[in-house]
Amino acid sequence: MLLFGGMRLDRLAARVGGTPFYAYDRARIAARVAQLRAALPAGVQVHYAIKANPMPAVVQCLAGLADGLDVASAGEMAVALDTGMAPQQISFAGPGKRAAELAQAVAAGVLVSVESGNQLEQLAQACERQGLPARVALRINPDFALRRAGMRMGGGAQPFGVDAQQAPALLARIGQLGLAFEGLHLFAGSQNLSASALAETQESCMTLALRLAEVAPAPLRSLNIGGGLGVPYFPGEQPLALAPLADSLQRQLGRLALAAPGARLQLELGRYLVAEAGIYVCRVLERKLSHGQVFLITDGGLHHHLAASGNFGQRVRKNYPVIIGNRMHGEREIASVVGPLCTPLDLLADQMMLARAQAGDLVVVLQSGAYGLSASPTAFLGHPLPAEVLL
Ligand SMILES: *Cc1c(COP(=O)(O)O)cnc(C)c1O
Question: Pocket residues for ligand 1 (CB within 6 Å)?
């Protein structure tokens, strides 16, 4: 029987009130943050990007471990503020911010990562109406991309941030408007397992940031150079090596200290902090044979865990790590784990070697703590929502 968060999986399922459910382990999240901090130079601040897992209990847990919280909507901002985290340590990014969201950010005193000239003017209007200064960072679309990233969010045409070429004009405008300029924000990509690619990007980010800092309306107080630290999901993928990353960050800290003394260097991490601390559990409803192939039909699937199903067939599908949690030993066979939805895309494991399972058994999808429930189409086909627990 799998043990998770110090509990037997069958007892956990009973305590949660049945399947399907997500469970996250507080001790694993804490160990991850501790391991990262032990590896990285002390001067690097670690922020949690709530988008990866916005469950309030998880965010509360990370508020006590991270140096700051990064949000991308007024909804996430409310979750972050509810943890008691000081607004000084919360920043708000996103390519589309509604006027009401900007007004809420000004009122709360969180740092707004401005991503366009239009956002900047709207932010200034919100400040004027409220008679409050806004804390502003400028998000830059770097003129380079993160090599070998699972998802690129910088380099070339992007809806995120302002092109590096346009940044000097916007920095001047921030000065004219009299807003409280605090820093720069760069995010080049996500889900990267190559320390050398990440180090290269950090180097380029620092070069660009220091160049822009020279024309900024005030000294740099914070520099958020993104993150992109990945976790292994698929066979053959290796965990990210932290030592070379630490060396790279040490160099960047040195450069920052020389050019912008007193500026804090921040990493914003989502997936890296929570992905490995979560599991998704569903129950086998039926074992079915079709043309000699075994299908384990479960009470969970794509509608709860889009990422494990392969994102609506939009890219080459690979199996997430899946196990039969109540049969850790014994006979094994090739089987496919599917959900209850009427689509062939509702697949949690495609012809995978698993313990031989029966109705009632518990299917566990590992590495499910990030981009799980909140990133899934829960309304699709009208099945109930899964429970979520933090242990
Ligand atoms: C999504 C996002 C993150 C988190 O990315 P992970 O890959 O989960 O670490 C951080 N910063 C920004 C701006 C993002 O959009």
Answer: 49, 51-52, 70, 93, 187, 190-191, 226-228, 268-272, 370
Atom of ligand 1 nearest to the CA of 191: 7
Span 15-61, pLDDT tens digits: 999 999 999 999 999 999 999 999 999 999 999 999 999 999 999 99
User: What is the Å distance from ligand 1's center to 259 Cα?
Assistant: 27
Say if residue 218 is in the same domain as residue 125: yes
Domain boundary among 211, 245, 269: 269
Ligand 1 centroid from CA 15, angstroms: 33
> Same domain, yes or no, for 91 and 227?
yes
Q: Closest residue (by CA) to atom 2 of ligand 1?
A: 49
Supply the pTM of this predicted model.
Answer: 0.96
Residues 209 and 349 in one domain: no
Q: Is 382 found in the same domain as 328? A: yes
Orientation of helix 195-213 relative to helix 242-259, angle to 10°: 10
Both 83 and 226 in one domain: the answer is: yes
- Domain presence at residue 39: no
Phi, psi (deg, nearest 5) at residue 171: -65, -40
Q: Which atom of ligand 1 is nearest to the CA of 93?
A: 13
Q: Among 271, 291, 285, which residue's Cα sits nearest to residue 357?
A: 285
Residue type at 292?
Answer: G
**Would you say residue 43 lies in a domain?**
no
107 and 256 housed in the same domain: yes
| Domain membership flag for residue 350 | yes
For 381, what's the count of Cα atoms within 13 Å in the CB-facing half-sphere? Answer: 14
Residue 256 near residue 283, CB atoms below 8 Å:
no
What is the Å distance from ligand 1's center to 188 Cα? 9
